[in-house]
Amino acid sequence: MPQTWQPKPPTPSPSYSTGWLGWARKNLFSSPGNALLTLLSLAVLLATLPPMLRWGLWDATWLGDSRKICDSAAQDGSAGACWVFIKVRLEVFLYGFYPEAQRWRVNFTLALLGLAALPILAPTLLRGTLRQALFALAAALLMLFTFGVPGAVFTACYLLAPLALPPLLGQRPFLELFAGRLAGAITGILLTGLAALLLYLAAGQAGGGGAAGPIAVAGAVLAVFLLFIGRLTAGAWRWILLFTVYPLVGFFLLVGNVFGLPLVESHFWGGLFLTLVVAGTGMATALPIGILLALGRRSTLPVIKTLCVFFIEFVRGVPLVSVLFMASVMFPLFLPENVTFDKLLRALIGIAFFYAAYMAEVIRGGLQAIPKGQFEAAMALGWPYWKMMALIIMPQTLRLVIPGLANNVLSLLKDTTLVAVIGLLDLLGVAKASMADPEWLGFTKEAYIFAALVFWVFCFAISRYSVYLEKTYHTSQHYN
Amino acid sequence: MTTPAPAATTARQPIITISGVNKWYNEFHVLKDINLQVGRGEKLVICGPSGSGKSTLIRCINRLEVHQQGRIVVDGIELTNDVKRIDQVRRETGMLFQNFNLFPHLTVLENLTLSPVWIRKMPLKEAQELAFQYLQRVKIPDLAHKFPGQCSGGQQQRVAIARCLCMNPKIMLFDEPTSALDPEMIKEVLDVMIDLASSGMTMLCVTHEMGFARTVADRVVFMDSGEIVEENDPQTFFNHPKFDRTAAFLSQILNH
Question: N or C: which end of chain A has fewer CB within 10 A?
Fold first, then answer.
């Protein structure tokens, strides 16, 4: 008869390896060299930080609204920073030369983007329909106080639509009610066309002449999703709205010339607002194009593969500045004389394709890390190519390449400053222009530091967000 | 035909017919003139040394590998480059892999429901009920909300079996399903496979588990260097192998 075997109970780890003391011992003073480095770093911090803080915070001039206050402070001997300069110029730093009376349009577009993106960006924060509905109502209330009733109603509709659509549509797409596939397809096409036509006429009636066409197209796209794909979650609807309805709203709100909004041409755009427009549309367009390019480069069809390789290698071989130059100077030469193409739009397209090529290579790297068995398992279960890519391969790939994509996004955000070479004034461009203002000569430091701080805040947020994403999708646990 | 089919199979209606199949990887001749018929509900075990082409053979049946010569007909559908036919065949076959190949970004339950919902267009509720039914059958209903990375190898392979069953296949292909498992976990997977065999499923099984072959198989096929050396009912196969190559292989894997 063998004896009964009992595993030993676990014991707590020794105290010197835990707590802040254990942390300091392990991280700061683990060896003589390490201890020396710690002390040296401390000395450098002590030497540099106090003067910096004194200049930027304690001795700085914060109050007032003209340069005289800063000048008199400088004569008193306390030569701190003159943040009055930034304060007076803040509106220009934020909006460029967007007309003052119309700036609410910028605010509304960005606020709506934030509210629309939050449930997508922080899935763990707003889990469950109830929380999402409450969030939508709170957002609408917020918009009510800042933008009035129409803004609040639109926001509420926009945010509640993804929640309302799945239960309204039920489990099956509308068209499965039709038995015959052909009959279903024809009905679907007719209904799509009808939806587009109605939207076109309604938009025209409401005074949105120029916007009627695009609104009809977006409506048709939505109708296709509604009728043919139907079985989608609230999360999927959020993405669809973000890529169909939101760009349309943003575009016509910012540009105007429809629905009684005055036209604001893109050369009035500038400052942080322009930076965010360029970076935002750049990210939103470059990623999908990058995914397609990455798939194309791995395609077994020689024509597609060659085209993708050629495009990626060509774009990676030229600097962004030259792409922007091409877009702004060369491109119009190839167009007929009476055709004009907005300069900002050309820059946006150039940046989107430029970054798409980089992202494509990052994503291709991720694709190579997906075990062949994943493709085989999906194929053996009967998954066709595009569905397999969309629901099985890409979700895994994108999780793997979060750090690489975050790199691309950060560098895209900072590269928006290069639009200065084609005469667009982004945040840095506006800062430079402000330094040249004869009334405020001599405050370059303040302008640069402010611009740097703003960039740092955005970049740091993106970088922390990528860490949050990695944790949410616990990427590292997948293949072990 | 190398051997006349044993009495057990002649009574069955054939569901897979492989005739004169040849396949090359560049210069390498992996499958040499393969002829094989599998009857509806038959349990076939394919064994042989590594590199003998047994995995390639069953991967040809659902077109994960493409054969260059000969015909493969699965349930009346001949496999060609026609994507529709490939889809049809894949809808009728389930496959198990050595490395399980569960989708690591989805929970066990999602692994089971994803294909019925998106490929079979089944309502989610129904798919979830079906999934729980099969998880029950492979005896791991409590793992439904775990990720594959949190399950043991044996559990993962049982999830993989349930995932195939959710697609309601007529034929199951097993590509060395227990080769990557710890000895302690092999039995739990084999038990599920034996249970599946008793339900009348057509099964093609590439495996080295000779105990399984003895108890479950209707027929054992032995392959070496891309050829079918011999096929027979398990009794005759294990006790009276026809060729010395078979006897040598059996003595290698049975006596250690």
Answer: N
Q: Which of B64, B101, B167 to mutate to test the interface with A (most CBs of A within 10 A)?
A: B101
Under an 8 A CB cutoff, do B163 and A392 touch?
A: no
pLDDT digits (tens, 9 = 90+) for A431-475: 888 888 888 777 888 889 999 999 999 999 999 999 988 888 875
Q: Does B124 touch chain A (CB under 8 A)?
A: yes
pTM score of the predicted model: 0.85
Q: Where are the domains of chain A?
A: 91-98+268-480
Spatial distance between the Cα atoms of A480 and B149, rounded to a whole number of angstroms: 7
Q: What is the pLDDT of residues B112-164, one digit of tens each?
A: 999 998 888 888 889 999 999 999 999 999 999 999 988 999 999 999 999 99
Q: Is B149 on the interface with A (CB under 8 A)?
A: yes
Do β-strands B14-25 and B69-74 pair in parallel, antiparallel, or remain unpaired? antiparallel
Which residue among A172, A382, A479 sits closest to B91, beta carbon to beta carbon?
A382
Chain A CB contacts of B91 under 8 Å are 382
Q: Does B66 touch chain A (CB under 8 A)?
A: no
Q: Is A395 on the interface with B (CB under 8 A)?
A: yes
- Exposure letters A277-298 (e unless 16+ CB within 10 A, then b): bbbbbbbebbbebbbebbbbbe
Asked whether the beta carbons of residue A377 and residue B93 sit closer than 8 angstroms, the reply is: no
Q: Determine whether domain A91-98+268-480 maps to CATH 2.30.30.100.
A: no
Q: Mind giving me the DSSP string for A69-88?
A: HHHHHHHTT----BHHHHHH
* Global ipTM: 0.91
In the DSSP assignment, the letter for residue B63 is: T
| Sequence-ordered strand ranges (E) for A235-349 | none
State the smallest CA–CA distance between residue B252 and chain A in angstroms: 30
Task: For strands B219-224 and B202-206, give the pairing.
Answer: unpaired
Q: Which residues contact A96 (CB under 8 A, 6 or more apart)?
A: A268, A269, A270, A271, A273, A274, A425, A430
